[in-house]
Specification:
This is Thrombospondin-like N-terminal domain-containing protein. With about 180 residues, the protein is mainly β. The strands form 2 sheets. Strands 1, 2, 3, 5, 10, 11, 12, 14 and 15 form a 9-stranded antiparallel β-sheet that branches. A hairpin with a 3-residue loop joins strand 10 and strand 11. It is globular, with a radius of gyration of 15 Å.
Length: about 180
């Protein structure tokens, strides 16, 4: 298991327009403001290998109505290896090999905390929102080919036409957690 927010929180104080607060029962919250991007080298958190089967768990809140990137893994040549995007009506999973899945989900941008989880295996992509299984996609996963020589981004934009975060928050209690299976 890798707690991405724990790693990112170490650089928040150095960044403009993002900060860490404590909320509720001592849960640390990272607030990422407009045009702010938190970046980590993938090697820093995954060492020499990223598994082909994994779970990605996010706990987030947002009021933004436009579609925006929440979480992105980039190759050294800025190719998207894995990206999670949200909008008012959908959550989008983008992977390598032209894999782009848009799941209809309303209410993710209502300012309330939501838990989002993706389970990636060799045969299925499963989406859970607020602890309910919403959809299973059958697929043949021969590996997403996610190398560890790229970057992990929370927030930010890749293209000039994209909408950046206005303000989104990520909680430490459930945090951004990646479980790698072997």
């Amino acid at each position: 298991e890798v707690n991405v927010l724990q790693e990112l929180s170490l650089q928040v104080s150095e960044r403009n327009n993002s900060f860490v607060t404590v909320e509720g029962s001592r849960c640390l919250v990272i607030r990422v403001g407009q045009y702010s991007t938190l970046i980590l080298p993938l090697q820093q958190i995954f060492n020499d290998r990223f598994a082909d089967e994994f779970s990605l768990l996010l706990q987030l809140r947002s009021l933004q109505r436009e579609e925006h990137s929440v979480f992105t893994m980039l190759s050294p040549d800025s190719r998207i290896m894995l990206q999670i995007r949200i909008s008012t009506y959908a959550i989008i999973f983008i992977g390598t090999q032209q894999r782009h899945y848009e799941f209809p989900v309303s209410g993710l941008c209502d300012g309330e905390w939501h838990r989002v989880a993706f389970s990636v295996s060799t045969t299925h992509l499963v989406l859970y929102v607020d602890c309910l299984q919403l959809e299973i996609v059958d697929w043949v996963n021969h590996g997403l080919e996610i190398g560890t020589d790229g970057l992990l981004m929370v927030g930010g934009i890749l293209e000039g036409f994209e909408t950046p975060f206005e303000v989104s928050s990520f909680r430490f209690c459930a945090s951004v957690l990646i479980s790698l299976w072997d």
